[in-house]
Amino acid sequence: MTQEYYLTSDRNRNIIVTTTNLDELRMVRDKLNKLDKDYLKKSKRSLHAVNFTIERTINEEEETKDN
Question: What is the pLDDT of residues 38-53, one digit of tens each?
Answer without folding.
Answer: 777 777 765 555 677 7
